[in-house]
Every structure is written in structure tokens, then in C-alpha cells.
Amino acid sequence: MLFESRIIVQKHVINRGFDESFIKGEGIGDYEDEDNNGVLGQTGDGAGINEMLSTLIKGAIHGEIKSTDEQPNEQAKKFFRLLKEAEKELYPGCKEATKLSFIVRLFQLKCMCGLSNTALGMVLHLFSLMLPEGHCIPNTLDKIQKVVRDLGLDYQKIHACVNDCVLFQKEYKDMDTCPKCGESRWKTSAAGERDEESGDGSAKKRAPCKILRYFPLTPRLERLYMRESTSGQMRWHREGLISDGKMRHPADSMAWKHVDNMYPEFASDPRNVRLGLASDGFNPFGMLNITYTTWLVILIPYNLPPWLCLKQSYWMMSMLIPGPKSPGMNIDVYLEPLVDELKQLWIHGVKAWDAKVKRNFTLRAILLWTINDFPAYAMLSGWSTKGKFACPYCHKDTEYLWLKFGCKHCYLGHRRWLTPNHKWRRNKISFNNKVETREAPIPLTGARVLQQYENFEQVTFGKMSKKRKRRDEETRWHNRRKKSIFFELPYFGKICLSCIIWM
């Protein structure tokens, strides 16, 4: 971008005019006249320019609204009604908060301070008694939760096997024990009983051993287009990106362009969303003396400009995988709901309301790549970052050395990636007492990766499953431990696997 003075900008507008794709609506004919002095006016303070731009913008907006009488879909109507109702004053004369802002801040306090549902209900009852008549505060927790669900901020609780074998959904929804390891779905009491009875003889509600918290993706993508400004920003990769051969945005990458070439129908609509996935583990208690790991999965919409897509406010938390230990290779079990939703968004899409053009459209999405550190890379891709073939680029040509007293592998073949005349190739003392003359290994292509997947069977997930025998490593020509669940997506095996799918 270039910053110019007002006088220079005025001269540019007079001499060059506006791009035809930028201005639509009333007043465009005025700038096709050769004599522009009459349009701009004789004032030199820029008032003519301001008046011209105001007229053009108003004309464009009026033209868009006038050209369509399409109504928002039911989901959008429900959302707009909720926002309109939520903008009501908390009580007559209140200027500091609305109904929606009060509910959001109340939930923030609940999460930050660890308030129980009972305590939150008592706080609501107290507010309803103390505030003046005419207030719109819900008097029960259920009513507040309904507002949150209608906003699309709710999450789903999916029970999981304690050994990470399966999720209790679909065909396993009504089971009380894991179909693979036989472990109970429910926590047992101290006496070993699974069903306790309350004082009145009724059965108490059973608590599951493990719960996956899944945040649906589709409602969050729909929300991005229900606001006019955000809807325009989601087109930035097509309308605002400068194509000058420089790497300014993921849209300039080889993987992005490869998808455009393979799926021109998907690429033709800039509103279709390109997603990146990031995952990592953390200790929710923040104490190093307690071993506990919770894994979260985050989705990032890369349609946005680079100064927005990496802002935390635009990240979408997809799921929280419970601990206390890392799921390891069993993370695919927990990714099933996300992969199912990504399939629907690719094959069928979802009807969404575009607030910028005031029309409904079919929103689709694609997962381009994952971004993670090396341990998470092993969990998501299935390529083990340990053992003889730990390097995903060198694969079967990885040079390894077993440290007898360290009981681990080390890797000394990194000099092969240097230029042929590099001085370190001839340096023997600082390395393994050898001169390096070999060329760099050739990374795996997409076809080779798919060939590896076809040559071995999928493993059985779960911590109770039999581990692979060590002697199998002697005969294997790759270092894969599983078939990644992402290859169930119809497009994932076809997009450019060699172009940093696993970043």
C-alpha cells in the first residue's frame, strides 16, 4: 500500500477514475464523462471528492438491496431475532449492559471462578429479586443456556471409552460397555456398584468415565457471513490480495493453487472456506508437579486477511480431548465427529446467509493442512517420529545410529541437505569422522504416500490393543503406525501431499 496526500489522490481519481469492478450502482455514469471538473466541483479542500464517494457508496448499497428480494434462511432469521431481542436494555434506563452482554459476562465469571450450576442459579435468583421491574434477566439457568445454544456457542458432550477405543455415538450410542475392551462406560462407586439409588428409590444419574467436548464447526462458519464486514473480509484472498509473485498469504502457496486447479468449481466461489488445523496438549491446572494432559484442536479460516486469520478471536476451538494422558495415536477416535462434519461441508455444503450481498448461498469448506510440532505431527499423520525412519523427508534413507548407553537413536545424515561445495561436507572432526558426498534424499510424493497406505492394514485403536512387535521394524520400508483419519476426506488423498500437508 502507498500513502499519498489528499491532492495527489484527487488527481488520481480525476485522471484514472475508479475500477469498474469496485463501483456498482447509481452515479457511475457521471464519471464516464470526459469533463470531470464539474463532478468534483471547484473547491480545493476535497469536499467534492467526499460528496462523490458518499454518493457512490450509497448508490452501490441501494442497488444491491433493490436488486434482490431474497429472505435469509431460517437459521439466519433465528439468529437475527435473537440478537434483536438480546439488545434490549437489562432494565429500563440501563445504559451499561444489554441482555446478551450480561449473559456473556456471567458465563465468563462462571468459567473463570469455577462457579457451579447451583451457585449460578442462586445468583440469577438474587438478581431477579434485586433489579427493578421490567428487567429481562432469565430467572433460571436453562433459559440462559438456551440463549447460548441459539447463538451457536454450545458444545456437544460425547462419551468416550476410558481406554480411547471408541466414542459412544452412532452404533455405540446405547452401549454401556466398550465393544472392544469391555470396560464400563460409567464410573463405578467406591463399593463397586455401577447404579446407585437415591433416598427415594430412584436411580441416580450415572457419570461417564470420559467426555469429549465437541464444538460444531458449521454454525461458526455461518456466523462469519451473517455480518456484512466479516463477510467482505472472508473474500479478501480473492478481492484484496496482490498477486505480484511474493508470498503474502497462504493463497500464494503451491498447495492453495493446487486445490484451485483440481477443484475449479470449489475455487470459483471465494466464500468457500479454506481451513487449517492445529493441535497440541496442555496442562489445564497450570502446575508442573501434576501430570495431566488435555488436548485441544483448533481450526483457522485462512480466507481472512493475514492480520486477522491469526488473531485469537477468529480461531475456532473444535474439541477438547480429556486426559489425564495424551491420546497418542488414538487421537483419530476423537477426530471422528470433526471429520464427519468436514465431509458434509465438502460434499453437500450448508445453506448460509451472506449479509454483504443479501443472498443465501451454499457454503462449503476444505481442510488444507495441519500445523503442529513434531510429537503432534506423529499423532495426526501416523508417521512415527521415533525409530530408524524418524525423518518424514528422508524416510527409508534416514541415517541412524543406536546409542548403546543412551538407549535411543541419533541421526547424523543432515549434511546431505547442504550444497555440494559446502565446507561442512568435508569436515570430519566435527561430525562422524567421514566426508559427506551423498545427495539429499528425495521426499515422498503424494502417490508414494498413498501406496504406503494401501500396503498395510489399519491398526486397532485403544490402549488395550496389542502393540506391534519390534521385529516388524526389520521388514518395514516405512515408519507409519496407522492410516490417518484425514484420508477419509474425499479430497485429502488428491491434494498435493508433497506440498507441506503436514506442516
Q: Could you write a compact summary of the structure shown?
A:
InterPro entries: Transposase_21. The chain is α+β, with helices and mostly antiparallel strands and 503 residues long. Helix content is 32%, strand content 12%.
Outline the biggest β-sheet.
6 strands, mixed
What class do helices, strands and sheet pairing give?
Answer: alpha+beta
The backbone outline, from C-alpha atoms, is globular
Q: Mean pLDDT, nearest integer?
A: 79
How far from one another are the termini? Answer: 30 Å
Strand order of the largest sheet: 1-2-5-4-3-8
Number of domains: 3
Which stretches are low in confidence, meaning pLDDT under 50 for 5 or more residues running? 23-68, 190-199, 498-503
- Our estimate of the beta-strand percent is 5-15%
Organism: Paspalum notatum var. saurae
Protein name: Transposase
Textual characterization of the structure:
- The protein folds into 3 domains: 6-66, no CATH class; 74-150, no CATH class; 207-398 and 441-503, no CATH class.
- The chain is globular.
- The chain has helices at 6-16, 37-40, 47-66, 74-86, 99-113, 117-130, 141-150, 218-225, 228-233, 236-239, 254-262, 264-267, 306-309, 331-334, 336-347, 374-381, 446-454, 472-475, and strands at 156-160, 210-214, 273-282, 294-301, 316-321, 350-354, 359-363, 365-371, 400-403, 408-411.
- Mean pLDDT is 79; it is low at 23-68, 190-199 and 498-503.
- It has a 6-stranded mixed β-sheet with strand order 1-2-5-4-3-8.
- With 503 residues, the protein is α+β, with helices and mostly antiparallel strands.
- β9 (400-403) and β10 (408-411) form a beta hairpin.
